[in-house]
Amino acid sequence: MEPESGIGSSTSPCQFSLVTLSRNLLLAYQSFGVVYGDLSTSPLYVYSSAFSGKLRNHHNQEAVYGAFSLIFWTLTFVPLIKYVIIVMSADDSGEGGTFALYSLLCRHAKLSLLPNQQAADEELSSYRYGPSSAQAASSSALRRFLEKHKRLRTALLLVVLFGACMLIGDGVLTSAISVLSSVSGIQSTESKLTNAELLLLACIILVGLFALQHCGTHRVAFMFAPIVIIWLLFIFSIGLYNIIYWNPKIVYALSPHYIVKFFRETGKDGWLSLGGILLSITGTEAMFADLGHFTALSIRLAFVFVIYPCLVVQYMGQAAFLSMNLDSFSNSFYASIPEPFFWPVFVVATLAAIVGSQAVITATFSIVKQCHALGCFPRVKVVHTSKHIYGQIYIPEINWILMVLTLAVTIGFQDTTLIGNAYGLACMTVMFITTFLMGLVIVFVWQRNFFLATFFLLFFWLIEGTYLSAALMKVPQGGWLPLALSVIFMLIMYIWHYGTRRKYNYDLHNKVSLKWVLGLGPSLGIVRVPGIGLIYSELTTGVPSIFSHFVTNLPAFHKVLVFVCVKSVPVPYVSPDERFLIGRVCPRPYRMYRCIVRYGYKDIQRDDGDFENLLVQSVAEFIQMEAVEPHYSSSETSPSVDGRMAVISTRDIRSSMTLTVTEQDFVSVVDDDSIHSGSSSKSITLQSLRSMYEDDTPSIRRRQVRFQLPPNPRMDPVVREELMDLIRAKEAGVAYIMGHSYVKARRNSSFIKKLAIDIGYSFLRKNCRGPSVALNIPHISLIEVGMIYYV
Length: 791
Fold this sequence. Notes:
Layout: H1 13-34, H2 37-40, H3 46-50, H4 61-86, H5 98-108, H6 137-148, H7 150-184, H8 195-211, H9 217-246, H10 257-266, H11 268-272, H12 274-277, H13 284-289, H14 296-324, H15 332-335, H16 342-355, H17 358-373, E1 383-384, E2 393-394, H18 396-413, H19 416-444, H20 450-472, H21 475-509, H22 514-520, E3 527-536, H23 545-553, E4 556-568, E5 580-584, E6 592-599, H24 611-628, E7 646-648, E8 660-670, E9 675-676, H25 684-694, E10 699-708, H26 717-732, E11 734-744, H27 751-767, H28 771-774, E12 782-790
Parallel strand pairs: 3-4, 3-11, 4-6, 11-12
Antiparallel strand pairs: 1-2, 5-6, 5-7, 8-9, 8-10
């Protein structure tokens, strides 16, 4: 027996494993209420949907056996093997979904269309994934081919956007069909309700469901998880009872031989019925898309040990009942319930069907956040609802848009069959695209054999393509809806991405010449007043054109200038030790620096009042580092390029090696959009304005940080003078300078480009959150300069 660890020793591996296991078990419990509500309620309508239409002519035992065999092997191959075993192994540091796969591909094969990427981004610790061995010749050739042709990279982005839009449309359809199917069950009771009354009840439930989303994933999960668990116990028990009571020989239908017999007997009618069979795996994509809200292990535990056995037994039990009751296809689930248990099961089924829409709503939030971080969605407010799981988010604007669209679909269609046709097409399209992206991940990221990826693609495309072809036949009967929704959302995403890229290219080609700046001298031809000016731009090199507007139109400018670029990189998160890149723009006397702040698409971009302080600390550390390693500085003999950038750790203000830090708490104000620091300026005028502004805003406790330079006789006097200038500038105050841009198409542009830029992109910019709000910039310290971009 191993000796026990002594008191005060560090946590043992056994204790760590127990903590990890308990955490994953808790997350697995929560996943029942978020991830599996949709998948677990599919038995309500799969058989009735599959045996409607032309398959009504084949209500016999052989067809029932074949349908169950199809369901069993579909559940085994798609959710179990493809997603749980293979696809969920390709998570991007805990994030899932189509954009997580795209992010992996962009890092391992230069497929990204993001304009401001740097070689330094590839040195991030979270940038590389998987083995670093040399790629096979076949995969290298394919990678070079894709990297060479920009149209192929654009096509890949469009495919990814289409998959993301289909998942958003799925969120609309899931809520509509789940709630409508649940309330329609009331018509089977003695109390008959009119269709108008049922529709009103469904709309009330939908409004309540979306109103609950602001509570956060973990709270919603704890509320909904017991309902789904009770539901799973019910369907497992009922399925087991039906197998034993009605037809134990149904176990023979596990053989795929019955699938061959099914298609041999039903022919084209059986192929068309696949549109109903595929409803048995709807909600599967949510397992992967919701990965950021949980962990891969927790979702796998829940599916393998609970969801999969319960669903298989339930579908087998329904098939056993139908094989002996061939006139009960229209309401097979409720008809198979033993009479004494009908009402308890009916109540739980209604609640579980309502919960079923939660999975895709949650997945939609994750997808939208990833799209926004990668430059493919307008700025929206992202609320992080958990301190422990960063992926648990809530997006108010998207929540209410989903609610309006869901109500419109519910009121417009009023038929679960039509919505089911649209629902199946949306789900299968997303799975088809995920299979394609996963094939590329196998080659480029996992660096496996090209033929292995080809086998994966062909095998799962054969299964999903068969189902997709059947679903496409339902386009006239409601299947057009997800296509229409996807086109609308994809236009929004692509127009935003296109406009953002064109705006960046304009900035890139209209940079201010450094020779012109150097020709002005260290005073820039104007008065340099105490203070720090943070000039925000999307450029990672050069001086933005906004700078020339200030120099030529203002009589004074700040003593210390920092060009700040806040950008997203295609990684889930960036370590605080690697977040800041600091460099010098001009020679030392100019006091001009560059700061690039890097965030991953999973990072929390919140201002806790420390950004200014971390920035000053980082610049001070860079000045000290530059004195030791001069190669980081700009060369006065070749001033046409910026100096080299250095990664500065920003984990904690108190960890500064150059400055002495003193702190004290003080009261500051905060509103819903931004946080205003009481130390932003020492100006009496600004302080009086601030006191007037604070009258109507709530107070919070903040930290006031003061920097001091410790005595060090060995420090270079030039370095000491520069550090003192930085400290004095911080004490004088910080101003945030941004361009208030108007983007217009050039006069000689095509009609489509004018339509996209002048109408589409301009509308999106006017109606999304402003950049100053998204970056949490204090309004009282903000200076905006009007800029017109002709792109």
